[in-house]
Amino acid sequence: MTKRPTLQDVADAVGLSPATVSYALRGQRGSAETRARVQAAAEALGYQVDPIARALANGRSGTLAVLCGSTRDTWHRALATDLVRALIARDRRALLTDADGDADRERALLDLLAEQRADGLLVAALDPFAPHWEEVARSTPLVAIGDRLAEAPSASAVVFDNAAGFALVVDHLAALGHRRLLVLLPERPSTPDRPAETSVREAARARGLTVELLRVPPAGADPDAPIERVAAALVRTGATAVFCLSDGYAFDVLRAARRSGLRVPDDLSVVGFEDVEEADLVGPGLTTVSWDHEQVVETAVTMLLDALDHHTGPSVAVIAPRLVVRGTTSRPPAAR
Amino acid sequence: MTKRPTLQDVADAVGLSPATVSYALRGQRGSAETRARVQAAAEALGYQVDPIARALANGRSGTLAVLCGSTRDTWHRALATDLVRALIARDRRALLTDADGDADRERALLDLLAEQRADGLLVAALDPFAPHWEEVARSTPLVAIGDRLAEAPSASAVVFDNAAGFALVVDHLAALGHRRLLVLLPERPSTPDRPAETSVREAARARGLTVELLRVPPAGADPDAPIERVAAALVRTGATAVFCLSDGYAFDVLRAARRSGLRVPDDLSVVGFEDVEEADLVGPGLTTVSWDHEQVVETAVTMLLDALDHHTGPSVAVIAPRLVVRGTTSRPPAAR
DNA sequence: TTGAAAGCGATACCAG
DNA sequence: CTGGTATCGCTTTCAA
Lengths: 336, 336
Known about the structure:
Two copies of one chain form a homodimer.
Chain A: H1 7-14, H2 18-26, H3 32-45, H4 51-58, E1 63-68, H5 74-89, E2 93-98, H6 103-115, E3 120-124, H7 132-139, E4 142-146, E5 156-160, H8 162-175, E6 180-186, H9 196-206, E7 210-216, H10 225-237, E8 241-244, H11 249-259, E9 269-272, E10 287-290, H12 293-310, E11 316-319, E12 322-324
Parallel strand pairs in A: 1-2, 1-3, 3-4, 4-5, 5-11, 6-7, 6-8, 8-9, 9-10
Antiparallel strand pairs in A: 10-12
The structure holds a DNA duplex.
């Protein structure tokens, strides 16, 4: 196995200096004729820049990173892999890392990525309130996905119009005659903007619905405990519909319902706040709010590449919700 | 923002040469006393090795890579992210890349990973027959997952005992009284060992079942076409059970069945050859063959790290199947 | 337009 | 046990 050719080899081949070859190869200098000659020689030798040497020399690694708060969650897992795929499809090298639900690890990975000279970051943050985001965003183009990063004005973001999503769900359920709504939301606040709690309450009030809030730990932490609590809450409150704000919990609720002998959607409407691929096959029908996956990915990637290539400043894109109705009961509360 | 301290800075601080410091920090040399002093100084300065400089100097990047044939497939996606998570959990840096169903890209990514000096590879190969695997495996510890790499004796592998899986499925269906089996398998052969086709036929013959084979394109390629073909094949052959070998097609079959007005499992048994997280919620019940995910991940990661740390030679681990029965009809063929 | 030379931040060989 | 010093392969001033 013969060694890979280096810049020097190419230089020797064309009788120029490595510097000149370097510039020529990147199209930064040289007469058209020189460039062509260099290109040809490089091609002939099968020369490829060594990304590591380049990174050491100029501080850029040529690699973008996707940092995911937790790939345990189906939707985030799909998002993360789609982002990587989109980047690769645009001929960028991309790597995916996963904080696995641990905020400390999120921080550690961030340091790691800095060390690795990641040129840009796509982040589904675990803790959007963490102060360190601004420091990172200041030195590296960064696009947050899902929620704005509270303390990082330098970061771009692709955010979901949660309030609009809530309104969509509440409208839908109200129109079907539901009066009591059980809302599952994450234990820790996650949106830097108006708290989900407030928005949901407000939307519900506008439609005359009663809301019961149930805070659940992040998905995957302890899969069983919350199911029991959900089942209990359903019985206790007599809610006829469950709205799952915490990503990934709609499936758990379906499991809980099944255990409790509740039929979905005949006895209970379940609405998720995301739209995973398998939702159409799950149970007899799970209604979800969908944030057009492709649009999210496309927007985020475009933002990042723009920032990278054209040094555009930070910006925020808002993704509108769409309701995908796959089964909700309209049985009025009196009938139960 | 002050510059990160370098090895030189630490050396200056303790009055030693960078070489000595480098060795001391890695615990390769130096009296206990020297090491302690160096450690302390490094700590005090907040020194962290620069992985890029290190990679350039010694050819190792300190990063392991997971190369996935296609993250479009739910099961592979889960596998890939789980592998990354497992590696990170063991304090390794890991990156995930995705060939997205394109064999050429698989090859290109492999080159890329070589350039990036990946220290080890975990691979769910798209094309296990490709000759280039051996070249890669020869220079980098490599563990293949799912199938052996036909031409790469230097690579380790975690393989699924497909034949045993087939037997499990066929036994199960035969016991329920099924006589006609529709088997979906990938267009391209994927197992270097005995072809799936042969194994399935053999297992079926042993139980007196008739087998209809239907070759389908890889998941995600053209989501609609195969569904129609499946529906047609069901009607044409009068099969009472479908066995999906091609990963990810069980869900599509359920969709096809629904469109055709077939009820699962009352009219049709559907068996998948993997066990995705959501299988228990899908439809009224999807029976699957399960390859203990955790065991697969654990085994693969352990193999890779052993090869890395102890220079163990290539080995092969076989994962045994388990049948997860979630709903199959026992309606005898005569009743249809 | 081109080239010589100084980094970038470590590692590893080889003397002392 | 230590410490010069030559790499590793490329980028980038700065002169020519």
